[in-house]
């Protein structure tokens, strides 16, 4: 039912609610309070603590607007008194606030005191107490506080919600029978808006979150079932005639973890349904060689393989690795990126995908999604760093074949809640072991003033023949926050500081030919130091690089720093990652310490998820994250598991006739 049909909601109010995306009664019921306020207890003004958010109440004794800077800046100030002390409330550049208050009003104030001499709050939340028939809704109880838009008073919206909850919540249908011990959905909606006790808020949130997770799990499980009923698989388990010589030529032996994963993949490739598998493995765990083996199985079975990478650098690097591995076996490897439409190992002019007869391997970026890439006989799709792509892109590549097998790889260890939600339709394999013979990787957290010592240390390492990465958060210093360093400027300084060692720069704004030649020079140890942005985050592989200095480490997420440091520790020498925190606060040090304490990517990812939430953990370009109102992917693992089981049960239950 549209909001406009509610008593007390005219066209103007309806338009305001529209701005909050509240169009129907259902939207209103799901408008989650931003927080709750216990208005049965107030803190006396005299007892307010600096920096501590509290609720207080008093009478306005004075108010007024002051202007400065020839009228360009203004401050509106209220002084309230509750008998214990006075409190100054200030709003900057909002002179119209004056209209909402009058001396003598009884007001509720929620905010953090900025200082205690005099007691001052800037931009607190306020509500004038009105004694009318509705006041028992707004006082002496736990009240909801909602997100608002201009022109909508808190009191009005709360009143509207009280009516809507009373009239409509009882008629809300139960999507699932309430699990025992949990309230009905109707009851939960009442509790989330107008709890009688504080603990009802969390009880209600959990119930409503469960419903959200069930809906997600149903969608995932239905998608998988529908596809299983349609899809017939192409047998791709291989014949070993290429695999055997490949493994013999390899300069290392596969780890037990790699072998175990390959067995899982081989079983999938020979099964009735196409493979849909997520391969997780910490940076450096050796996913590439597993991908190569999977590709070989498909190629042995006469199928073409496509491998999609999120960046050109990565695609080029994979191209080199795979040419080196597969060309001796007589397999064609092609590269398709935005800047290089086709480029095959055979280097023929129109060595186009369409004309290629024998099974080949195509490596590329998003360019693989374009229409002119139409491989014949596509048997296997491999996607590296899956979280950089959305489900839609994944499906688009898959549609270039008839139900090809799918292997997605990620080095971002995905905490289980996220895994079940984002990749619930995939089977999971984990490479939980690093190849033997690697040097130790240690991580050190330091303050910016130790930079000269760190430079000395880098010099020593360079003198021993090792190489170094230096990472900055930005390319150049336009629009830089104070103290944030950038690649371009710092590269010049490092050239001087580290002479005669050679220093090169790498960042996303360079042309790909330039990037390629810098990477090649670093690979060949002609450049000793590579100064870069996070473009080196994924995939770059130079085993001789053993030192990574990351400046402004506080600007990065933990999972991102973990990815970055995965660029070192790949050879036999010990490696050192030095995190310089240029804006040193106790919190940022505490956060960075997680990295010094563990090299386990799962632990880092979980800490990051807790600290910053799923969107930040997976990166801004993550498109597959669901919009949850009540559910919290960082904390609700038990609910997600419960939802998964309930969804599976409801899908297998016989449909009532
Ligand atoms: P990631 O899982 O991060 O993609 P890579 O596949 O790039 O890791 O592997 C990192 C390095 O380890 C590469 O140089 C690769 O050749 C090497 N490597 C992979 N597997 C093994 C192994 N079993 N033994 C020794 N080195 C290995
Ligand atoms: Mg990789």
Distance between the terminal alpha carbons, to the nearest Å? 30 Å
DSSP strand content: 15-25%
Count every beta strand, where a strand is a DSSP E run of 2 or more residues. 22
- Largest beta sheet, briefly? 7 strands, mixed
Describe the global form: globular
User: Measured on Cα atoms, how large is the radius of gyration?
Assistant: 30 Å
Q: Helicity, in percent?
A: 25-40%
Which secondary-structure class do the elements indicate?
Answer: alpha/beta
Which consecutive residue ranges, at least 5 long each, have pLDDT under 50?
343-355
Q: What do you see in this structure?
A:
The chain is an alpha/beta fold and about 650 residues long. Among the domains are: about 100 residues, Nucleic acid-binding proteins (OB fold (Dihydrolipoamide Acetyltransferase, E2P)); about 190 residues, P-loop containing nucleotide triphosphate hydrolases (Rossmann fold, 3-Layer(aba) Sandwich), CATH 3.40.50.300; about 160 residues, Rossmann fold. The protein is about 35% helix and about 20% strand. It is built from 20 helices and 22 strands. It starts with 10 loop residues before the first helix and ends in a 5-residue tail after the last helix. About 0% of the residues have low confidence. It binds adenosine-5'-diphosphate (ADP) and magnesium ion (MG). Adenosine-5'-diphosphate binds next to helix 9.
């Amino acid at each position: 039912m549209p909001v406009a049909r509610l008593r007390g909601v005219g066209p103007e109010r309806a338009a305001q609610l529209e701005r909050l995306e509240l169009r129907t009664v259902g939207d209103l019921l799901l408008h989650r309070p931003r927080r709750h306020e216990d208005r049965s207890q107030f803190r006396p003004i005299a007892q307010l603590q600096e920096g501590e958010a509290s609720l207080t109440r008093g009478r306005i004794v004075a108010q007024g607007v002051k202007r400065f800077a020839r009228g360009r800046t203004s401050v509106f100030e209220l002084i309230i008194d509750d008998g214990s002390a006075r409190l100054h409330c200030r709003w900057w550049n909002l002179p119209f606030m004056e209209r909402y208050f009058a001396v003598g009003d009884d007001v509720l104030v929620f905010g953090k005191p900025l200082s205690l001499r005099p007691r001052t709050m800037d931009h607190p939340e306020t509500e004038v107490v009105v004694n009318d028939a509705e006041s028992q809704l707004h006082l002496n109880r736990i009240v909801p506080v909602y997100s608002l838009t201009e022109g909508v008073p808190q009191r009005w919206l709360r009143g509207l919600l009280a009516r809507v909850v009373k009239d409509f919540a009882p008629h809300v249908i139960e999507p699932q029978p309430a699990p025992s011990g949990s309230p009905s959905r109707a009851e939960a909606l009442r509790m989330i808006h107008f709890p009688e006790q504080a603990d009802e808020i969390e009880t209600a949130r959990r119930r409503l979150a469960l419903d959200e997770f069930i809906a997600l799990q149903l969608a995932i499980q239905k998608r998988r079932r529908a596809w299983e009923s349609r899809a017939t698989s192409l047998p791709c388990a291989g014949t070993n005639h290429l695999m055997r010589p490949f493994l013999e030529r390899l300069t290392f032996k596969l780890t037990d973890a790699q072998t175990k994963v390959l067995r899982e993949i081989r079983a999938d490739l020979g099964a009735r349904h196409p493979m849909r598998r997520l391969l997780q493995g910490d940076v450096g765990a050796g996913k590439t060689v597993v991908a190569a083996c999977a590709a070989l199985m498909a190629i042995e079975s006469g199928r073409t393989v496509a491998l999609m990478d999120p960046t050109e650098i990565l695609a080029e690097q994979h191209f080199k690795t795979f040419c080196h591995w597969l060309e001796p076996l007589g397999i064609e490897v092609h590269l398709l990126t935005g800047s290089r439409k086709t480029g095959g190992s055979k280097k023929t002019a129109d060595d186009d995908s369409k004309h290629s007869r024998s099974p080949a391997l195509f490596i590329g970026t998003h360019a693989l999604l374009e229409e002119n890439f139409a491989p014949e006989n596509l048997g296997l799709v491999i996607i590296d760093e899956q979280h950089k792509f959305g489900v839609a892109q994944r499906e688009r590549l898959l549609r270039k074949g008839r139900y090809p097998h799918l292997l997605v790889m990620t080095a971002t260890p995905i905490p289980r809640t996220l895994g079940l939600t984002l990749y619930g339709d995939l089977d999971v394999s984990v490479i939980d072991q690093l190849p033997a013979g690697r040097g130790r990787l240690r991580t050190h957290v330091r303050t910016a003033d130790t930079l000269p010592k760190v430079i000395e240390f880098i010099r020593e390492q360079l003198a021993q023949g090792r190489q170094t990465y230096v990472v900055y958060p930005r390319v150049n210093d336009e629009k830089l926050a104070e103290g944030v360093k950038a690649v371009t400027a710092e590269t010049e300084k490092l050239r001087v500081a580290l002479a005669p060692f050679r220093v090169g720069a790498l960042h996303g704004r360079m042309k790909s030919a330039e990037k390629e030649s810098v990477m090649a020079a670093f690979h060949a140890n002609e450049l000793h130091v590579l100064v870069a942005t996070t473009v080196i985050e994924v995939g770059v592989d130079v085993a001789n690089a053993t030192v990574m200095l990351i400046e402004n480490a506080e600007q990065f997420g933990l999972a991102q720093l973990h990815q970055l440091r995965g660029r070192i520790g790949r050879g036999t020498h010990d490696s050192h990652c030095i995190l310089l925190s240029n804006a040193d606060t106790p919190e940022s040090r505490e956060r960075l310490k997680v990295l010094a304490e563990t090299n386990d990517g799962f632990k880092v990812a979980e800490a990051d998820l807790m600290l910053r939430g799923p969107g930040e953990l997976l990166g801004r370009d993550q498109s597959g994250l669901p919009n949850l109102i009540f559910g919290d992917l960082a904390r609700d693992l038990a609910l997600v598991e419960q939802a998964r089981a309930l969804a599976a049960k409801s899908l297998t239950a016989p449909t009532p006739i």
